[in-house]
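Quick question, first post here. What does this chain look like in 3D?
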Amino acid sequence: MDSISRYLGSDHHHCDDLFAQAEDAAARRDWAACEAGFRAFAEATAQHFRMEEEVLFPALEAQTSPLGPTRIMRMEHRQMEELLEGMKQALAQRRAEDFLGGAETLLIMMQQHNLKEEQVLYPMADQVLQAGRAALIARMDALAGRAEAVGHG
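> Answer (accepted):
Ran it through. Tokens below.
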């Protein structure tokens, strides 16, 4: 991957695909598939947040300001984690309507969040961190346990 935008945008799509699988399984009341899909989605999302919060955001803040857009993105990450926890509890109790209601809220939040990242934050990072992009992507890969930058979807 040659840009932060493509790298993390691809990861968004990977997470979106996992989310859709879990949501579809819940709608069918296929609890085993829903649990597996939700677990995969939650793990991929947590990993995505770590790549941003432990690698990208600190690098960007060192060049800009810690009070800028990264602060808002972190706040939104915490809100999404709360929704994920509620969905996890609904799933454990087989409350399909609660799970799907949480999923609907989360989907709207993720779409808005990802749009801000993909159209504003990532392009800004590509520009501001141009000289160190390859090293940042390599660090995110290492954090994610991947040997090299690959597309997810």
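Residues 72 and 103 are 21 Å apart (CA to CA).
Confidence is low (pLDDT under 50) at residues 148-153.
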